Each structure stands twice: as C-alpha cells, then as structure tokens.
Amino acid sequence: MYKCTTHRTFGQLQLWPRWYAKAVENEPKKSQTVGLAQRPDPESVGCDYIGPPDPDSNLRPYVRHYNNRETPLAKKLRLRRIEIDAWNNDFWTKHNKRFYQEKEDFIQLHKNAGTASQDITADSMSVFYKSFLDKNRRMHIMYNISWYLKNVELLVLAFQVFLQKLLRREKKPTQ
After folding, report:
1. What is the tens place of the pLDDT at every residue in 14-39?
2. Per-residue b/e over 105-125, b at no fewer than 16 CB within 10 Å?
3. Least buried of 39, 49, 61, 91, by fewest C-beta within 10 Å?
4. Residue 2, SS3 per DSSP
C-alpha cells in the first residue's frame, strides 16, 4: 500500500527536494485501507510515494515523482537517489537472507544436538547473534562507510538543486 507524503515549505519555496511522511490527523480505523494497493507509475503521480516494507530487505521503497520541467541537476539527483535506494535494498536483501539462513542452521544444530527441550533459550540465541555480528563486522563497517559517503553525495546534490531553485526564483522579475 503506497501513501503520498507531504513536503516542507518555507513560504512558496520548497526547502528540501524530498518529500516527508507526516502523521495523519484523522487516522482511519484499522479495517480501512489507506493509499494504493500497488506500486504507482512515477510519471503519473504528483508526489513521492512510500510503500510498505519489502519482505526481503525490510526497507520501505520509494516511488520518486518527477515532472517534465525537471532540470538536469534535479534529474541527476533523482536518478542517484533511485540508484542508492536499489544498492541499499540489494545489500539488506542479501544480508537478511544470509542472517535467516544461518539462524535456521543454528536452530537445527541445537535440535540435532539433542537438547532436553525443543525450545532454544534467549541466552543460546544471543550466542548466535553475537557470532553473526562478529563474523560480519568488517562488512558492516564497509557498508556504513559507503552509506555515509553516498549520503554526503546526495546532500551536496540536493544543496546544489536548492541553490539552483533559489537563484532561478531570484532572477524572475516581480509582477
């Protein structure tokens, strides 16, 4: 289910080129459906849409709106965001698949070892979690470094788009 989000503005000038989610004042009852049942077409929507969490990566996908008057710099920012979202989704899909597979192997190993009860305690699972994190520590560090660099790149591009919009607005003659 995709839901359109609102954006932050300062007067008539949109401050950030990204749309943000905000709480709905009169939230519907839980039995009602809000938003869209399927992924909308980016060319036909009027704003960015945020979808439900992906079952594999647990990340909420974005459908990024764009219009025909988009500047080349704004288009570069939008395409880079889409590319980074795909990279992030791919990383977490592979990570979660590996995590659940190793967790299942750990549970099977304990069941085959003939423990007195079939239930695995939280303490024994904490051993698995710790070993999984230790084993993937370097990969997580590299992911974080890459993630920070990509976010800085997006911030620089977003700031350039903001300045471009601001300068274009300043150049317009007042009527």
Report:
1. 444 333 343 344 554 444 444 566 67
2. ebeeebeeeeeeeeeeeeeee
3. 39
4. strand
62 vs 83: CA distance, rounded Å: 11
Where does 27-121 have alpha helices with state H?
72-112
pTM of the model: 0.71
For 79, the token pair is: 């395409």
Residue range 66-83: mean pLDDT, rounded: 90
Is 63 within 8 Å of 48 (Cβ atoms)? yes
User: CA angle, 95 as apex, 92 and 99 as ends, to 5°?
Assistant: 135
CB 5 within 8 A of CB 50: yes
- pLDDT interval class at 133 (50, 70, 90): very high
Strand order in the sheet with 62-63: 3-4, 49-50, 62-63
Compute CA distances 23 → 40, 47, 53, whole Å. Answer: 21, 16, 17
- Give the other-Cβ count within 10 Å of 74's Cβ: 19
How far apart CA 44 and CA 50 sit, in angstroms, is 15
Rounded percentage of the chain residues whose pLDDT exceeds 70: 74
Determine the 3-state secondary structure of 1 from DSSP: coil
Structure tokens at 105: 């192997």
